[in-house]
Design a protein that fits this description.
Layout lengths: L31 H6 L3 H9 L19 H4 L4 E4 L6 H18 L5 E9 L9 E8 L2 E9 L5 H17 L5 E6 L2 H6 L9 H15 L6 E6 L7 H11 L13 H20 L2 H4 L24
Parallel strand pairs: 1-6, 2-5, 5-6
Antiparallel strand pairs: 2-3, 3-4
Length: about 300
């Protein structure tokens, strides 16, 4: 994610230096003895980067102001969140979605796409993503792809990419994407450098071509929690969760997956170390989330 001119690259191994001239203290120039004695994040970074399969570009054109998709086509993309805590508001949301799909069932120019992803906890299983395509009230196509080792957000983003890119190939004016993660849908058009950037680039490039010279073309992202089991999305959800695919040697691995793994390792080490009373000191105030359970450090979606 660093620019090819960043000073840190000169400290990394040749594989990850992007051609930078090695610094005298670079990992490349250290002896085996020096490497074994080194206490630094750099060896851990080197080891993690061996597993990373994503590529990033911090200078791509989409990041420039006035060149971003939402800068050029702000009225062509809309998001429809679901209130997950208010039952009445949620019902109104699904009534509107039912009405939209009913209208789409008699409109040849509208394509409805239900996307979902399944991330299975065992390390030897791949994430699975699914997209179902509906036109004139009938399912006209479906796609299912393994995604290697990925977080839920990464897998959902890949599923949205799968849905958007294929939807563009249909001769339609309006695309309705139904997903259970509107956060990921917003990330799909977020120009910042983030995990899953390749999916973002594929999405915005497809949509830019879809919108250019077509002022009546649009895409709508609708939030649909899986637990509500709403018709079309629930079919995609069942398709994704019922599929189990084992990982192969050197599976595709996203940046967020490695960050999550690193954070989990740190938390496990902290809990093990802090379990001994001698490590806590005499002035530590334990906080309880309930009568019996002590509050513990946690990590979720990039936040500790």
């Amino acid at each position: 994610m660093l620019s090819s001119q960043h000073a840190l690259l000169s400290l990394l191994s040749a594989r990850n230096s992007k051609g930078a001239h090695p610094h005298p203290q670079s990992l490349v120039l250290l002896t085996d003895t020096q490497s074994a004695q080194l206490r630094s994040p750099l060896p851990d970074t080197k080891a993690s980067l061996l597993n990373l399969t994503e590529c990033f570009d911090s200078l791509y054109s989409e990041i420039c102001p006035e060149c971003r998709l939402l800068d050029n086509f702000p009225d062509h993309v809309s998001f429809h969140p679901c209130d997950r805590f208010n039952g009445h508001t949620r019902k109104l949301q699904f009534d509107a979605l039912d009405c939209l799909c009913h209208e789409a069932s008699s409109n040849l120019s509208t394509l409805v796409v239900a996307t979902d992803a399944s991330v299975i906890p065992p390390r030897n299983m791949q994430a699975v993503l699914v997209a179902h395509f509906w036109r004139l009230g009938e399912q006209v196509s479906s796609s299912k792809v393994p995604a290697g080792r990925a977080t839920a957000l990464d897998a959902e983003l890949f599923a949205i990419r799968l849905g958007v890119v294929k939807a563009i190939s249909f001769d339609v004016k309006h695309i309705v994407i139904i997903t259970d993660s509107l956060t990921t849908a917003r990330r799909a058009v977020d120009a910042s450098v983030h995990s899953g950037q390749a999916h973002f680039l594929a999405i915005v490039q497809a949509l830019r071509g879809f919108f250019t010279n077509h002022p009546d073309h649009s895409i709508y992202f609708w939030d649909c929690p899986s637990k509500t089991q709403w018709s079309l999305h629930f079919l995609a959800h069942k398709d994704a969760t019922s599929t189990k695919i084992a990982t192969r040697h050197h599976p595709a691995t996203s940046l967020d997956t490695l960050q999550s793994k690193s954070a989990t390792t740190c938390l496990d080490a902290w809990r093990t170390f802090f379990a001994h009373s001698s490590s806590q000191g005499h002035h530590f105030l334990p906080l309880k989330g309930s009568i019996k359970n002590l509050l513990q450090l946690s990590y979720a979606k990039g936040r500790g």
